[in-house]
Specification:
The structure holds 2 protein chains of 2 kinds. By secondary structure, chain A is an all-alpha fold. Chain A contains 28 helices and 2 strands. Chain A is 74% helix and 3% strand. Chain A has a two-stranded antiparallel sheet. In chain B, helix 1 packs antiparallel against helix 2 and helix 2 runs antiparallel to helix 3. Chain B is elongated, with a radius of gyration of 17 Å. The N and C termini of chain B lie far apart (57 Å). The model of chain B has no long low-confidence stretch (mean pLDDT 90). Classes of the chains: A mainly alpha, B mainly alpha. Chains A and B meet through helix 28 of A and helix 1 of B.
């Protein structure tokens, strides 16, 4: 057996689990959970074995089977093995495993648990498909599959209208982006003649002008897809609403899957993006990072704060891609996956302890009640805020260094966001965990079971050491970018300050500033002091700058108008004219012809004779 | 005046047209049937005439076959008409309109 078989098994294991659960074990909760968890953990173990067998840069780069061919158009179903896909493979299966295990504790009471695990497995399958895809068609199919499975998971509690709406919103917003993505794909295919990544890269290297004037358009259209999946402005509105799903789903969506898919895809096709497209991408990323960090400051729902922080960090990653730096982007994506999964699972633990209360102003004093949750949450927060020696510092710093090299404006945006991040995170931490209990539920909170705590511990460890395990060097193998290999642990520890002191120190100073400000304002606060101080601005932040209302007022009527036109066209032109017209004409002619049928044999004989006479006349004329 | 092929053919055509007219115009099934036979014999006459003028006996042989088949056909046809009469008590074409829905 060649090692290339392993990734195929890894890919299809979650699908098998999903199918088995849906078809056979709907009634058996434990078996369903075991199947799903078993599949993803096995997938993780097999991924580790595969990595051990072939190394980071396997000799065999692709394993594919012909799938469909139409004329010249040939699509393979293939898996691609390179440092990028292997690292993501480990990351996705690893984080998904942890979240699956956690889910068993979190969702124990839910009556549709088997459906939940089936959705989770399907989601993992789709994400693995994106990660391993060797061509655009396959990527797009799994891309859509991620959209579908996210819809089923976000709307998991479909009895609640808010959850059902959030599922729809996520799906439709993503479809908007995917529309552009699809057009971008077709553009690339028509001008480069292939959709396979290796071939594309080869073709483009052979003839850099192959895309010609369409290069920027193609790049931006492809970015549209990432904009939807990675929730970049102006398609960012679905992500906070996606919080209506179960918390482990939020963790999965926000950490290693779905939103990561957009950034991953950009890195995968970074060779297609030209300087103009990258410039736009960088600014959109930077703007998203800033906007959502500002909104995050005034949110009260623990999960929504985390959602806006995800948006903000995704903005960082997209900005990094736009700044010619896929390596920092993937580096931050990886560390972010660790600590964001940790934060969401921590929030889930809090929510369970609070009997599904999510308002941070009703918590307080949870530090003593939930010690493990608290300390792991602190680790995640420090990593997210970018304080050394936590992993977030190193990945965020690599992005800031990239910005310092290419674009000073974006460096400033990045530093401002770096100051806002600790502000909203420590606001959350101070209000929810410190001080005195602000409600009865907070006073009687109990620590979660071990099955939910061990995932937290594992992720906390990864969040702390993420900066020292060579993740950046790993991605640097993929992209032509020089990263200093650090000789010793100490050099790694202080590396950023030596190589690029300006971004490192400014980022750190900004983070400390935000932290101190949050501490000063919120350490003892019983209610939020900001609305009084900021007035209207705070109200705007609370209402997410009225983006939802803006879209409601502009895009929805526009969409309804277009839909009405399309509906009119369908009803009157297609159904009315084309379909009913044909049927009406035939019926009329039929009615006329019916008159000819008299039943009288002699009439028939007469017509027959006339016919023969006519034919004879025509023939003999 | 010698009698040529045309004369035979003209007679044959006249017989045939008479037959067609009879089939179309007459109401009684029996008469229609006789008109049919007339058309058949018009064709026979044309065949025999061609055979005679082309010095080829094939046409005459063919006519024998036609006469044989016609005899059988008459037997079947008359039987059918009798059957129709027994069932409907009428042998008029305009009374038989069950072909119309």
């Amino acid at each position: 057996m060649t090692p290339e078989v392993l990734p195929w098994i890894v890919l299809f294991l979650p699908l098998v689990a999903a199918v088995l659960i849906t078809l056979f074990t709907q009634r058996n909760r434990e078996l369903s959970a075991t199947l799903s968890i078993g599949a993803v953990v096995t997938a993780f173990i097999l991924s580790v074995i595969f990595r051990a067998l072939v190394g980071w840069e396997p000799a065999v780069r692709e394993s594919s089977a012909a799938w469909l061919s139409v004329g010249d158009f040939q699509v393979d179903f293939g898996l691609r093995f390179d440092p990028l896909s292997l690292a993501m493979l480990l990351l996705v299966t690893g984080v998904a495993s942890v979240i699956h295990i956690y889910s068993w504790g979190y969702m124990k009471e839910d009556r549709s648990l088997p459906r939940y695990f089936a959705g989770l497995s399907l989601f993992t399958f789709s994400m693995l498909g994106i990660v391993l895809a060797s061509n655009f068609v396959q990527l797009f199919i799994f891309w859509e599959l991620v959209g579908v499975s996210s819809y089923t998971l976000i709307g998991f509690w479909y009895e609640r209208p808010a959850a059902a709406d959030a599922g729809k919103k996520a799906f439709i917003t993503n479809r908007l982006g995917d529309f552009g993505f699809l057009i971008g794909l077709l553009l690339v295919w028509t001008s480069l003649g292939s959709l396979n990544f290796t071939v594309l890269q080869g073709n483009l290297a052979a003839d850099p002008q192959a895309l010609g004037t369409l290069a920027t358009a193609a790049g931006l259209l492809i970015f549209c897809g990432a904009m939807g999946k990675s929730a970049q402005f102006p398609l960012h509105v679905w992500l906070p609403d996606a919080m209506e799903g179960p918390t482990p789903v939020s963790a999965l969506i926000h950490a290693a899957t779905m939103v990561a898919a957009g950034v991953f895809m950009l890195c995968r096709v970074s060779f297609l993006l030209n300087a103009n497209a990258l410039e736009v991408i960088a600014w959109i990323g930077g703007f998203t990072a800033l906007l959502s960090a500002v909104i995050g400051i005034q949110q009260d729902d623990i999960k929504r704060i985390l959602a806006y922080s995800t948006l903000s960090q995704l903005g960082y990653m997209v900005m990094a891609v736009g700044l010619h730096g896929p390596t920092p982007a993937m580096y931050h994506l990886t560390t972010h996956a660790f600590f964001k999964a940790l934060l969401f699972l921590g929030a889930g633990s809090v929510i369970v302890a609070m009997h599904h209360e999510q308002d941070i102003w009703k918590m307080g004093g949870l530090r003593k009640k939930l010690p493990v949750t608290f300390w792991t949450f602190v680790a995640g927060t420090l990593a997210l805020c970018g304080l050394p020696p936590f992993s977030g510092f190193y990945s965020k710093d690599s992005i800031l260094a990239q910005a310092a090299e290419h674009n000073l404006g974006l460096l400033i945006v990045g530093v401002v966001v770096a100051a806002l991040t600790p502000f909203y995170m420590f606001r959350l931490l101070c209000v929810a965990f410190l001080g005195s209990p602000k409600s009865d539920a907070a006073g009687h909170a109990k620590e979660s079971p071990q099955g939910m705590l061990w995932p937290l511990r594992i992720l906390a460890t990864l969040s702390i050491i993420g900066g020292f395990i060579g993740i950046e060097q790993l991605y640097a193998r993929q992209f032509p970018q020089h990263v200093e290999p650090e000789a010793t642990f100490l050099q790694t520890l202080i590396g950023p300050f030596v190589h690029a002191p300006v971004p490192a120190f400014s980022g750190l100073a900004a983070a400390l500033l935000g932290l101190v400000a949050a501490w000063a304002l919120y350490a003892k606060a019983a209610e939020d002091p900001l609305p009084a101080r900021l007035g209207a601005l705070s109200r705007w932040m609370r209402n997410r700058f009225y983006f939802d209302e803006l879209y409601e007022a502009t895009l929805i009527p526009l969409h309804d108008f277009l839909a009405a036109i399309a509906g009119w066209f369908d009803r009157w032109i297609i159904a009315g004219l084309a379909v009913r017209g044909t049927h009406g004409t035939i019926e009329l002619v039929g009615r006329a012809l019916r008159l000819l049928q008299t039943g009288n044999v002699q009439t028939y004989a007469f017509l027959f004779a006339m016919g023969v006479a006519l034919v004879l006349y025509l023939v003999l004329k | 005046m010698t009698i040529g092929l045309e004369h035979y053919l003209v007679v044959s055509a006249m017989l045939f047209v008479l037959g067609v007219a009879g089939v179309i115009v007459r109401r009684n099934l029996l008469v229609i049937y006789m008109s049919l036979e007339l058309m058949l014999n018009a064709a026979n006459l044309a065949l025999v005439a061609f055979s005679r003028f082309n010095n080829n006996l094939d046409g005459q042989v063919f006519v024998f076959f036609v006469i044989t088949v016609a005899a059988a056909e008459v037997a079947v046809g008359l039987a059918l008409i009798v059957a129709v009469y027994r069932r409907r008590h009428s042998v008029h074409a305009e009374d038989l309109r069950t072909l119309k829905l």
